[in-house]
Amino acid sequence: MELNTLISKISDIINLDKYPIHDLESEAGRVLLAKARQEFNSNSLIVLNDFLRPEIVSHLAAETLEDDVTKSFCFTGSNNVFLGTQEVQNLSPDHPSYLQKIYTKRTLACDQISSDSPLKVLFQWNPLVTFVSSIVGQEVYRSADKLGAMTVHIHHNKDEQDWHFDVSEYTIVLHILAPQKGGVLEYVPCSRSEVEEDTEALAKIIRGDRHSLTKDLPTIPGVFVLHSGKLSMHRVTPVEGTIPRISATMSFNRTPNFQLNEYTRQLYFGRNE
């Protein structure tokens, strides 16, 4: 696809006038990047409002609701806060990271999302990778995981996602549909070292004691979020009402050809391939 044609297609998906991530050398691009770096360095997270075009948000919501019926995997269970990552795989069974709450959520894996979906087009667009790399201050690569590189999550009434650290280092979250109530991303920036070293600090967060650094991000359709989920403990609060919460995630890492571990694949997709 020619460059101008691709940029035109991307501009139908995201607001390049407001967020010129394809031209970071321009004055507007430099201003955008400087603000994004400052916010990320302060909060380990950035939020860009009105990133997705409203027409695309509506299209993705309708497409996801249709695919949810026939394709999505329904997870019911509990998770380990560290999602089976190697450095904590030998924890004792009574360690507080083994959560007891049973919750539900639905997921569309990367291989279930159409290749011509606006989400896939955006994920494969190289300037997006450059933008992420420029914000976090190091070169990153798209996840190569067949299931988890890019996913869509659907939270219906009473669905949630309990506290966890991501397996991937950096994650883009795109908000597509907001529930009537709940579905808030609660996020404790750069908390991994603290809770690995202090099990009581971990236990307090799990039992509902609000950490002083906790930030709340409501679901607002069209919003772009970039966060360092491997270092920052986070969860999605229970959804309430007949309208589900829909979001898409795109994963990035410092190492190329990154793959999820078997624990996470089985947990959230019910399969390894």
UniProtKB/TrEMBL annotation:
Family: Belongs to the iron/ascorbate-dependent oxidoreductase family.
Protein name: Fe2OG dioxygenase domain-containing protein
Stored PROSITE patterns: FE2OG_OXY (PS51471)
Domain Fe2OG dioxygenase span(s) in chain numbering: 130-254
Matches recorded under InterPro entries: BesD/HalB-like (IPR056470), Oxoglu/Fe-dep_dioxygenase_dom (IPR005123)
Sorted UniProt keywords: Iron, Metal-binding, Oxidoreductase
Superkingdom of origin organism: Bacteria
Coiled-coil positions: none
